[in-house]
Write a structure and sequence with these properties.
heterodimer; A: alpha+beta; 2 domains; eight-stranded mixed β-sheet; four-stranded antiparallel β-sheet; 12 helices; about 20% strand; B: Elongation Factor Tu (Ef-tu), domain 3; Rossmann fold; seven-stranded mixed β-sheet; six-stranded antiparallel β-sheet; about 20% helix
Chain lengths: ~350, ~280
């Protein structure tokens, strides 16, 4: 579709207009960091952010959500499935997080489609932003092929100075642009400027993996007994932060609770973590992944091998969030490079 | 917004409760409108008690004996199973499923069958055993080697007696420790294997039991020359969804709930987290 131009001063007006019909979730400052949160005022939105603490996964798979209510008052309990959904615009997602959402799309739509995720996905528009600078020294999106994107967005913005270029990815995106924003057609000069900006960005991002990420599944296949897992197991605090902040982690728990009045029971789904001690423990007491070393190995194998084998996509997008958050400095780039160097 | 959900259970009625041992009870469960569960032997359901929680439970009744109801043999071991044990006939439970891949009945036809359940492992195998006995002519020999810790822990004693009395079933039972009333075989389940000879190429073996049991039973089965592709196991894991998403039941790259819970030994031989 035709490239458009959206002057920067148009963005607040566009956000304000969208807010009339959608919940707009965008990057906002939180102390020295950034978070994706519902925007109450367009001026809160910080499209110049580097990286958010949690990815926009929070919109599509919230940390906690009700999936069913069971009414207990009548003769027989009545089950009411619940899908918590609200028309939403994710405004300002970076391309790494878009790649992660594409993986979540696959995970939640295979053999047994997950109507909770998929209905929210259906009612969510994504306006993404091209990254022109690395977030910090921890991002390795270039290695993971997530430094740019050619699908998965409704609209994709690139900062060319005074304005953003707008790539339209879907008909819904075209309609949004039509209805909520005053964009003009791009001129030849705009296209030249865009090409300059895009070719200037690539050298700013460095490779941090010492090898091609496509080698990860084969590399890990021979690294199951690598001594690094025991070493990570010694350091890991099993706090679960790495999986909580990961944009491609989607494991969850399903919990039932009952109202004090005893009139209804509620089934909720919450994020869970394979790093927690009880994750693989059965009621009889057997724990099928008891050692922290085995749990750490499981996380890295999911990222570099298991999800690839299941969905054809690596489970890591190189956002670096797990590196920034880990209290004991477990670093996925170092882990993969260490294994590679000893292979 | 209200719609359907793969995580929302269907409420079903507990039609009957029968104590089997100190810890295990047999629950007969009826779906609304007398509908059949439509399961295959080896599949499981997610069973829930409203407000308490949900757990995966193997189906112990055979499809051939469904009569519009199905049976779950449940050990009282945690919150959900504890609440289930307090449920009386007429009470309600939540059911999702059936889920997972069961035993490949078609590939077993014409073959000799060797069942080796240990303890509560009889629960999922009983579904298959009774299905086989209801189509007895379609199979070769039926050998059942059953082991339990103590005589008081033997499940389905009435059916064990029937199996023992049939001359088309070779049934051997053992307990790890006997008691004053026990006159049968004493010893772990592997001590039953020398009692039988099999034609390994034509035999399909099926085992289920506590994790510790598998290694020793597998040694016996392989020792008899039964091919790895003809040895079936049913594995237990924590499960929260039953539909391949929540991640809890993952066994390396396999999902117990979807790829299993029934696996061949050949499938899991090189999967370190399996046993």
């Amino acid at each position: 579709m035709r490239l458009r131009i959206l002057p920067k001063e148009e963005i607040p007006r566009m956000v304000q207009a969208l807010m009339a019909d959608y919940q707009v979730v965008g990057p906002k400052a939180k102390g020295p960091k950034f978070v994706f949160e519902p925007v109450a005022d367009p001026s809160e939105m910080r499209l110049d952010y580097n990286i958010t603490i949690l990815s926009p996964k929070v919109v599509l798979q919230p940390p906690g959500e009700r999936v069913a209510t069971i009414r207990l008052e009548g003769k027989a309990p009545q089950v009411e499935p619940v899908v918590e959904v609200e028309p939403t615009v994710i405004f300002g997602a970076h391309t790494c997080d878009l790649h992660a959402i594409r993986l979540l799309d696959r995970a939640f739509s295979d053999e047994y489609p997950d109507g909770h995720y998929l209905e929210r996905r259906r009612q969510t528009l994504i306006i993404s932003v091209e990254c022109l600078e690395p977030c910090d020294e921890h991002s390795f999106c270039k290695d993971m092929g997530a430094l740019t994107v050619d699908e998965g967005y409704d609209l994709h913005l690139t900062d060319i100075g005074e304005a953003y270029t707008v790539h339209v990815g879907t008909e819904a995106g075209e309609a949004v642009l039509e209805r909520y924003a005053a964009a003009r057609a791009a001129t030849d000069a705009d296209v030249r400027r865009l090409n300059q900006v895009l070719s200037a960005k690539w050298p700013r991002f460095t490779h941090r993996l010492d090898f091609d990420a496509a080698e990860l599944p084969a590399m890990l296949a021979t690294a199951y007994e690598h001594p690094i897992w025991a070493e990570l197991g010694e350091r890991c605090l099993a706090c679960g932060s790495c999986t909580n902040i990961c944009p491609t982690c989607y494991c969850f728990n399903v919990l039932d609770s009952i109202a004090l009045t005893q009139t209804e029971a509620v089934r909720t789904r919450r994020w869970d973590s394979c790093q927690l001690d009880e994750f693989a423990r059965v009621a009889g007491g057997e724990n099928f992944r008891e050692a922290r070393a085995a749990r750490q190995r499981h996380r890295f194998f999911r990222k570099g091998k298991y999800l690839y084998e299941r969905f054809g996509t690596l489970g890591c997008v190189g956002c670096g969030r797990c590196i920034r958050t880990c209290l004991v400095h477990i670093n996925i780039v170092e882990v993969f490079n260490t294994i590679h160097s000893s292979a | 917004m209200t719609t359907s959900s793969v995580y929302a259970p269907e409420m079903a009625r507990v039609a009957a409760v029968r104590p089997l041992t100190e810890l295990e009870k047999l629950f007969t469960i009826e779906l609304p409108d007398g509908r059949s569960l439509g399961h295959a032997p080896g599949q499981f359901v997610m069973l829930s008690i409203p407000g308490v929680g949900e757990a995966p439970i193997s189906i112990t009744s055979s499809p051939s004996r469904s009569n519009g109801a199905f049976e779950l043999c449940v050990r009282r071991v945690g919150d959900v199973t504890g609440a289930l044990h307090r449920t009386q006939p007429g009470g309600w439970v939540g059911i999702r499923g059936p889920f997972g891949h069961g035993f490949p009945l078609e590939q077993m036809r014409g073959k000799d069958l060797l069942f080796a359940p240990g303890g509560l492992g009889l629960a999922p195998l009983r579904s298959l055993i009774n299905q086989v006995l209801d189509e007895r002519g379609a199979f070769g020999r039926v050998i059942i080697l059953y082991g339990a810790k103590r005589p008081a822990e033997l499940l389905f004693r009435d059916e064990l007696e029937e199996w023992a009395a049939r001359d088309d079933v070779e049934f051997h039972v053992t307990v790890d420790r006997g008691d004053e009333s026990w006159e049968g075989h004493v010893g772990v389940i592997t001590t039953l294997f020398p009692l039988i000879a099999v034609d390994p190429r034509n035999t399909v073996a099926v085992t289920c039991g506590p994790p510790i049991m598998y290694r020793f039973v597998l040694m016996e089965l392989l020792g008899k020359g039964i091919p790895e592709t003809q040895i079936y196991l049913s594995l237990e894991r924590r499960m929260k969804c039953g539909v391949g998403k929540c991640g809890h039941c993952q066994i390396n790259d396999l999902y117990c709930c979807q790829d299993g819970p029934v696996f061949t030994y050949a499938q899991i031989k090189n999967v370190p987290e399996a046993l």
